[in-house]
Amino acid sequence: MYTDKPASIQSEDCFQRYEFSKRIASIVAKPSIDKSLIIGLYGRWGEGKTTVMNFIQKELPKETIIVNFNPWLFSDEQHLLKSFFTSISASLGASNKTKKEKIGELLSDYGGAIGSVTQLVGFNTDGLEKLGNKLKSTSAEELKKRIDELIIQSGKNIVVFVDDIDRLDITEVQYVFKLVKLVGDFPRTCYILSFDDEMVSAALSPKYGGDSKSAGYNFLEKIIQIPLKIPKASKKALSKYSLDLLNKVLDDNSIDLNQSESNEFLEVFDNAFLPIMDNPRLGIRFANSLSFSLPLLNGEVNISNLMILEGLKIFYPSLYDFIRNNGQLFLERTDRDQSDFNSKKQKQDEIKKEISQAIVIYDEKKQKVIIEMFEQLFPQLKIIYSNSGYADDIYVRWTKEKRICSSKYFDRYFSYSVQEGDIPDNYFENLVKNFEDNSIDEVVIKLNETIERYSAFDLIQKLRMQEGIFNEKQSYNLSLALAELGHTLPKDKNIYFTSTYAQSAILITRLIGIQSKKNQLTLLLKVFSISKSLDYSMEIHHWLMFKEGKDPVNAIFSEKEKLKIKELLVSIFKDSMTDENFFTSLEDGNLWRMLSWWINSLQHKKTLKVFLDKHLKKKNNPIFALKLLKVFTPTITMTSSADYIPRTYKSGFFQSNFDAIKGVVDVKLLNDNLLKLKGLNITEINPSEVSSQDPINDETLVSVFQWFIITQSIKG
């Protein structure tokens, strides 16, 4: 953190003020025998007035008696006078020990004569009785004359520096100028008064001429003999000073921005921050704000975005609060999910209106700069202001880059922490290192620990977002670890409209794609071999073939390799299958696919025929037959609007379903078994009369199947 300590030596002069200060010192160093000199050092808050005063003191001759007086510590006129004369007497005494008592007592008496002195802080008087006796016999004018003589005899100049005048209230400001003008007019004495002239003139106006600021300035002209403005810091110097501070903060946190990140920040800094930076203190506040937030968020947010946001807090505080309190306004994606063009346009106009109201206090040029800055932080606003649009993968990229425009990261920038439930990026980076350094069993343990600490949803989403960062070894180990635990992941649909379970399977297919060509098939077969669930293996296969079919040009596997993959899965199912688990070891959809592969397997199809004949040949196993028919009947999951509870059921049976089961089993033999079902009134129902969404009961299902049997027989 930077403490805003004023500079005091020439090497610390960042804004070319030393020569200016040196010139003032040369004026002050010349003796003025009869009257004091009053210099006004004008500057706004943070412009460096105290620094200039320090530089002046450095350039004054050694024999100069320097008095630093801060009126901000005293609340009334009496205490102000006491402190003022105490400061001068102490400085004079320190300069010349032999005259300490003499000058000090005279100043004490003089202060008492005009301010009812009782005891001066830091100066030991001889007591109230002695002071009272002196005041009886000596007038204030006489005391003043004797002090003047002693100062002239000392041959030394006195320079009184009075700082922080603009921090005083109106009455206290008036006290100070009364003190300097009427009481402190000593020979060989110079007063250097440092203050914001606009603030002070406004404070003086009510007492010296009315409410207008000009009245206060008129009074200042009577007091201040040499009015001087602090030299204006150039934009170039302010820029260098501020950027040096910011770079130091980055270095302290071991952060090295890449060229793109640097350019992104500098564009906003040059266009939005620097034009309104008029003093070094703003640069210090900016660096301090970043210095506070960066250790808390390093590795958890986009650093360039964080720097821009911290700058907003300093230079546009109301806009910072506006963003903080209106996140949805900036995160809204208005290029989709709208029922029609008019509703989309209406939403965009509402957002523009709210933003316009927030920036109306700025002129037109500044508003344009602010909008550009908003678009830098929230590119989705370009949809509104520039009629631009972004593909879905761009939004995913913004999340990967931890940008504030991602709803996943927005709150982090304002909470200075990772929200409860979110996986910290630093934690995630360490987790990824484990994928390379640890055994598969150890990776499984780490993944389970992460799921327990956070959630499976957050873990898989994070892995999907960062899948492009993994090297071959990491992707290999992670694939095998997921193969072991993937079957335990929830099947609730909440990531990209698919479940965490499905997303983990998709992730494995992406990780296999990272492998070199020679290792891809080997890894996939090993994944299937160690998977604890054949259903999960079938899920991986589904998404792998989905990807292959969607992008055949970049397909990973040849047709021969795809056949080998199916043969392995059939073999695993065949070896684990029993009469008891035939219908339970796989979900119906997966069993449908498995049986379709099996019956076409040159190596294993005979085994399936034997198994089916075993259960159907005698034509007295209607339960087995009905279960097999249901395997090839679509499974639907619907959520009721009444209670929002998802329900799974069988629905519809159509030509494609009949053709699929016909390819696996002798449908006439299957039908002979179905006719033995008891309690069902089996008729012929045309499938066109059956809904593809509503539940279908056993009686209707078998009746529709009967229709196909009879229809197909007639055709035959």
From TrEMBL:
Please state the span of the N-terminal signal peptide per the UniProt entry: none
Any stretches that span the bilayer, and where are they?
none
Top-rank lineage group of the source organism: Bacteria
| SUPFAM superfamilies the UniProt entry points to | P-loop containing nucleoside triphosphate hydrolases
Alphabetical list of Pfam families matching this protein: KAP_NTPase
InterPro entries cross-referenced by the UniProt entry: KAP_P-loop, NTPase_KAP_P-loop, P-loop_NTPase
Q: Which residues form the KAP NTPase domain?
A: 19-292
PANTHER family to which the protein is assigned, alphabetical:
NTPASE KAP FAMILY P-LOOP DOMAIN-CONTAINING PROTEIN 1, NTPASE, KAP FAMILY P-LOOP DOMAIN-CONTAINING 1
Q: What is this protein called?
A: KAP NTPase domain-containing protein
Upper classification of the source organism reads:
Bacteria, Pseudomonadati, Bacteroidota, Flavobacteriia, Flavobacteriales
